[in-house]
Amino acid sequence: MKPVVKVENVDKAFGSGDKKVEILNQINFSIEPYQLVALRGRSGSGKTTLLNMIGALDHPTAGEIYIEGTPISKYNEKQRSELRRTKMGFVFQSYGLVPLMTVEENIEFGLRIAGVPRGEWAAKIKESVDIVGLSKRSKHRPYELSGGEQQRVAVARAIASKPTLLLADEPTAELDSKMAFHIIQAFQELVKNRTTTIIMTTHDPNILEIIEHVYTLEDRKIDYRKKEIYV
Ligand SMILES: Nc1ncnc2c1ncn2[C@@H]1O[C@H](COP(=O)(O)OP(=O)(O)OP(=O)(O)O)[C@@H](O)[C@H]1O
Protein backbone atom coordinates (compact mmCIF):
# COMPACT_ATOMS: atom_id res chain seq x y z
CA MET A 1 0.00 0.00 0.00
CA LYS A 2 1.25 3.50 -0.82
CA PRO A 3 1.87 5.88 2.08
CA VAL A 4 -1.02 8.33 2.52
CA VAL A 5 1.47 11.11 3.02
CA LYS A 6 5.07 11.28 1.94
CA VAL A 7 7.12 14.36 2.76
CA GLU A 8 10.34 14.46 0.76
CA ASN A 9 13.23 16.86 1.34
CA VAL A 10 10.87 19.63 2.38
CA ASP A 11 12.20 23.05 3.36
CA LYS A 12 10.02 25.93 4.46
CA ALA A 13 11.01 29.52 4.98
CA PHE A 14 8.93 32.65 5.41
CA GLY A 15 9.97 36.07 4.15
CA SER A 16 13.00 36.91 2.03
CA GLY A 17 16.34 38.67 2.17
CA ASP A 18 17.22 39.93 5.68
CA LYS A 19 13.78 38.95 6.93
CA LYS A 20 14.00 35.34 5.77
CA VAL A 21 13.22 32.87 8.54
CA GLU A 22 13.83 29.20 7.93
CA ILE A 23 11.24 27.10 9.78
CA LEU A 24 11.75 23.58 8.41
CA ASN A 25 14.86 22.09 6.86
CA GLN A 26 15.07 18.84 4.88
CA ILE A 27 12.04 17.15 6.38
CA ASN A 28 11.50 13.53 5.32
CA PHE A 29 8.90 11.07 6.52
CA SER A 30 6.06 8.82 5.32
CA ILE A 31 2.79 8.00 6.96
CA GLU A 32 1.19 4.65 6.21
CA PRO A 33 -2.59 4.28 5.88
CA TYR A 34 -4.64 4.01 9.07
CA GLN A 35 -2.11 5.41 11.47
CA LEU A 36 -2.87 7.92 14.19
CA VAL A 37 0.11 10.26 14.25
CA ALA A 38 0.90 12.95 16.79
CA LEU A 39 3.09 15.90 15.88
CA ARG A 40 4.70 17.65 18.81
CA GLY A 41 7.21 20.44 19.25
CA ARG A 42 7.65 23.80 20.91
CA SER A 43 5.43 26.71 20.07
CA GLY A 44 6.77 28.11 16.81
CA SER A 45 8.53 24.88 15.80
CA GLY A 46 6.46 24.65 12.62
CA LYS A 47 3.69 22.12 13.41
CA THR A 48 0.88 24.17 11.90
CA THR A 49 3.11 25.12 8.97
CA LEU A 50 3.75 21.44 8.24
CA LEU A 51 0.04 20.54 8.55
CA ASN A 52 -0.84 23.41 6.20
CA MET A 53 1.57 22.08 3.58
CA ILE A 54 0.31 18.49 3.90
CA GLY A 55 -3.24 19.87 3.62
CA ALA A 56 -2.37 21.68 0.36
CA LEU A 57 -3.03 25.03 2.03
CA ASP A 58 0.57 26.22 1.75
CA HIS A 59 3.58 25.38 -0.44
CA PRO A 60 7.01 24.11 0.62
CA THR A 61 9.94 26.35 -0.30
CA ALA A 62 11.64 23.20 -1.63
CA GLY A 63 10.91 19.49 -1.75
CA GLU A 64 7.73 17.57 -2.52
CA ILE A 65 4.66 16.31 -0.73
CA TYR A 66 2.87 13.23 -2.07
CA ILE A 67 -0.71 12.42 -1.13
CA GLU A 68 -1.47 8.76 -1.85
CA GLY A 69 1.52 8.69 -4.19
CA THR A 70 0.66 11.82 -6.16
CA PRO A 71 3.04 14.80 -5.96
CA ILE A 72 0.93 17.85 -5.18
CA SER A 73 3.39 20.67 -5.97
CA LYS A 74 2.28 20.73 -9.60
CA TYR A 75 -1.41 20.90 -8.72
CA ASN A 76 -3.11 24.18 -9.56
CA GLU A 77 -5.41 25.85 -7.01
CA LYS A 78 -8.48 24.09 -8.39
CA GLN A 79 -6.87 20.66 -8.07
CA ARG A 80 -5.65 21.50 -4.56
CA SER A 81 -9.09 22.55 -3.47
CA GLU A 82 -10.59 19.40 -5.01
CA LEU A 83 -8.04 17.30 -3.12
CA ARG A 84 -8.94 19.00 0.17
CA ARG A 85 -12.65 18.71 -0.48
CA THR A 86 -12.74 15.06 -1.45
CA LYS A 87 -9.98 13.49 0.64
CA MET A 88 -9.29 15.63 3.67
CA GLY A 89 -10.91 16.71 6.88
CA PHE A 90 -9.58 19.67 8.86
CA VAL A 91 -9.85 20.65 12.51
CA PHE A 92 -8.04 23.96 12.76
CA GLN A 93 -7.67 26.31 15.67
CA SER A 94 -10.23 28.80 14.39
CA TYR A 95 -12.79 25.94 13.96
CA GLY A 96 -14.33 27.64 10.91
CA LEU A 97 -17.93 27.05 11.96
CA VAL A 98 -20.65 29.00 10.22
CA PRO A 99 -22.25 31.20 12.93
CA LEU A 100 -25.79 31.20 11.55
CA MET A 101 -25.96 27.43 11.13
CA THR A 102 -26.84 24.97 13.86
CA VAL A 103 -24.47 22.17 14.81
CA GLU A 104 -26.30 19.80 12.47
CA GLU A 105 -26.32 22.31 9.64
CA ASN A 106 -22.60 22.96 10.03
CA ILE A 107 -21.90 19.25 9.72
CA GLU A 108 -24.32 18.92 6.81
CA PHE A 109 -22.53 21.76 5.06
CA GLY A 110 -19.24 19.85 5.44
CA LEU A 111 -20.82 16.70 3.98
CA ARG A 112 -22.24 18.64 1.06
CA ILE A 113 -18.83 20.17 0.29
CA ALA A 114 -17.15 16.75 0.55
CA GLY A 115 -19.58 15.41 -2.06
CA VAL A 116 -21.22 12.85 0.24
CA PRO A 117 -24.57 11.72 -1.26
CA ARG A 118 -27.54 13.47 0.35
CA GLY A 119 -29.13 10.18 1.39
CA GLU A 120 -26.21 9.52 3.76
CA TRP A 121 -26.27 12.90 5.52
CA ALA A 122 -28.72 12.19 8.33
CA ALA A 123 -26.98 9.01 9.49
CA LYS A 124 -23.52 10.57 9.23
CA ILE A 125 -24.61 13.67 11.15
CA LYS A 126 -26.11 11.56 13.92
CA GLU A 127 -23.10 9.29 14.14
CA SER A 128 -20.55 12.12 14.32
CA VAL A 129 -22.56 14.19 16.79
CA ASP A 130 -22.90 11.12 19.02
CA ILE A 131 -19.18 10.44 18.83
CA VAL A 132 -18.32 13.89 20.19
CA GLY A 133 -21.11 13.76 22.78
CA LEU A 134 -23.18 16.67 21.46
CA SER A 135 -26.50 14.98 20.59
CA LYS A 136 -28.36 17.25 23.00
CA ARG A 137 -26.81 20.35 21.41
CA SER A 138 -27.33 19.57 17.74
CA LYS A 139 -29.93 22.31 17.21
CA HIS A 140 -27.78 24.99 18.80
CA ARG A 141 -25.73 27.58 17.00
CA PRO A 142 -21.98 27.98 17.65
CA TYR A 143 -22.37 31.20 19.70
CA GLU A 144 -24.60 29.29 22.14
CA LEU A 145 -21.81 26.78 22.79
CA SER A 146 -18.66 26.88 24.90
CA GLY A 147 -15.22 26.94 23.27
CA GLY A 148 -14.76 23.23 23.97
CA GLU A 149 -18.19 22.40 22.52
CA GLN A 150 -17.38 24.39 19.39
CA GLN A 151 -14.14 22.46 19.09
CA ARG A 152 -16.12 19.20 19.31
CA VAL A 153 -18.44 20.42 16.53
CA ALA A 154 -15.35 21.06 14.39
CA VAL A 155 -14.18 17.51 15.12
CA ALA A 156 -17.64 16.09 14.29
CA ARG A 157 -17.74 18.01 11.01
CA ALA A 158 -14.26 16.81 10.06
CA ILE A 159 -14.89 13.13 10.80
CA ALA A 160 -18.47 12.95 9.46
CA SER A 161 -17.41 12.43 5.85
CA LYS A 162 -14.83 9.81 6.87
CA PRO A 163 -12.00 11.54 5.00
CA THR A 164 -8.95 9.65 3.78
CA LEU A 165 -6.79 12.04 5.77
CA LEU A 166 -7.77 14.02 8.86
CA LEU A 167 -5.51 16.93 9.82
CA ALA A 168 -6.18 18.25 13.29
CA ASP A 169 -4.33 21.17 14.88
CA GLU A 170 -4.58 20.90 18.67
CA PRO A 171 -8.02 19.27 18.45
CA THR A 172 -8.23 18.78 22.21
CA ALA A 173 -6.74 22.10 23.35
CA GLU A 174 -10.04 23.43 24.72
CA LEU A 175 -11.23 20.18 26.26
CA ASP A 176 -10.99 18.83 29.79
CA SER A 177 -8.94 15.67 30.10
CA LYS A 178 -11.94 13.32 30.11
CA MET A 179 -13.35 14.76 26.89
CA ALA A 180 -9.87 14.94 25.35
CA PHE A 181 -9.39 11.20 25.94
CA HIS A 182 -12.84 10.55 24.54
CA ILE A 183 -11.95 12.35 21.30
CA ILE A 184 -8.63 10.50 21.04
CA GLN A 185 -10.47 7.21 21.53
CA ALA A 186 -12.81 8.18 18.71
CA PHE A 187 -9.73 8.91 16.54
CA GLN A 188 -8.28 5.52 17.50
CA GLU A 189 -11.54 3.82 16.44
CA LEU A 190 -11.46 5.57 13.04
CA VAL A 191 -7.94 4.31 12.52
CA LYS A 192 -8.67 0.79 13.77
CA ASN A 193 -11.71 0.51 11.50
CA ARG A 194 -9.44 1.43 8.60
CA THR A 195 -11.51 4.50 7.85
CA THR A 196 -9.06 7.36 8.15
CA THR A 197 -5.42 8.32 8.64
CA ILE A 198 -5.00 11.06 11.22
CA ILE A 199 -2.25 13.58 11.86
CA MET A 200 -2.80 15.75 14.91
CA THR A 201 -0.69 18.23 16.79
CA THR A 202 -0.69 18.25 20.56
CA HIS A 203 1.29 19.51 23.53
CA ASP A 204 -0.53 17.27 25.98
CA PRO A 205 1.84 14.71 27.55
CA ASN A 206 -1.07 12.49 28.65
CA ILE A 207 -2.27 12.23 25.07
CA LEU A 208 1.23 11.71 23.67
CA GLU A 209 1.50 8.81 26.10
CA ILE A 210 -1.31 6.88 24.38
CA ILE A 211 -0.40 7.62 20.75
CA GLU A 212 1.76 5.08 18.98
CA HIS A 213 3.38 7.24 16.31
CA VAL A 214 4.91 10.45 17.58
CA TYR A 215 6.89 12.91 15.46
CA THR A 216 8.79 15.75 17.09
CA LEU A 217 9.81 19.00 15.39
CA GLU A 218 12.92 20.52 16.87
CA ASP A 219 15.57 22.85 15.45
CA ARG A 220 13.90 22.72 11.99
CA LYS A 221 14.22 18.91 11.84
CA ILE A 222 11.82 16.06 12.49
CA ASP A 223 12.37 13.06 14.68
CA TYR A 224 10.20 9.93 14.80
CA ARG A 225 9.50 7.57 17.63
CA LYS A 226 7.28 4.47 17.62
CA LYS A 227 6.07 3.43 21.00
CA GLU A 228 4.70 0.23 22.40
CA ILE A 229 1.23 1.09 23.62
CA TYR A 230 -0.49 -1.07 26.20
CA VAL A 231 -4.16 -0.19 26.47
N1 LIG B 1 2.59 33.35 7.08
C1 LIG B 1 3.67 33.48 7.85
N2 LIG B 1 4.56 34.46 7.64
C2 LIG B 1 5.67 34.60 8.39
N3 LIG B 1 5.99 33.76 9.41
C3 LIG B 1 5.12 32.77 9.67
C4 LIG B 1 3.93 32.56 8.92
N4 LIG B 1 3.28 31.48 9.41
C5 LIG B 1 4.04 31.02 10.44
N5 LIG B 1 5.15 31.79 10.59
C6 LIG B 1 6.21 31.58 11.59
O1 LIG B 1 6.66 30.25 11.47
C7 LIG B 1 6.95 29.70 12.75
C8 LIG B 1 6.20 28.39 12.93
O2 LIG B 1 4.83 28.65 13.10
P1 LIG B 1 3.77 27.51 13.35
O3 LIG B 1 2.45 28.17 13.51
O4 LIG B 1 3.92 26.49 12.29
O5 LIG B 1 4.28 26.90 14.73
P2 LIG B 1 3.60 25.84 15.68
O6 LIG B 1 4.62 24.81 15.98
O7 LIG B 1 2.32 25.37 15.08
O8 LIG B 1 3.31 26.70 16.98
P3 LIG B 1 2.12 26.64 18.09
O9 LIG B 1 2.36 25.40 18.90
O10 LIG B 1 2.37 27.89 18.87
O11 LIG B 1 0.82 26.64 17.35
C9 LIG B 1 6.61 30.79 13.77
O12 LIG B 1 7.79 31.42 14.14
C10 LIG B 1 5.71 31.72 12.99
O13 LIG B 1 5.84 33.03 13.45
UniProtKB/TrEMBL annotation:
InterPro entries: AAA+_ATPase (IPR003593), ABC_transporter-like_ATP-bd (IPR003439), ABC_transporter-like_CS (IPR017871), ABC_transpr_LolD-like (IPR015854), MacB-like_ATP-bd (IPR017911), P-loop_NTPase (IPR027417). GO terms for molecular function: ATP binding; ATP hydrolysis activity; transmembrane transporter activity. Belongs to the ABC transporter superfamily. Keywords: ATP-binding, Nucleotide-binding, Transport. It comes from the Bacteria. One of its GO terms (cellular component) is plasma membrane. The lineage of its organism: Bacteria, Bacillati, Bacillota, Bacilli, Bacillales. This is ABC transporter ATP-binding protein. Residues 5-229 form the ABC transporter domain. Gene3D superfamilies: P-loop containing nucleotide triphosphate hydrolases. PROSITE patterns: ABC_TRANSPORTER_1, ABC_TRANSPORTER_2. Transmembrane segments: none annotated.
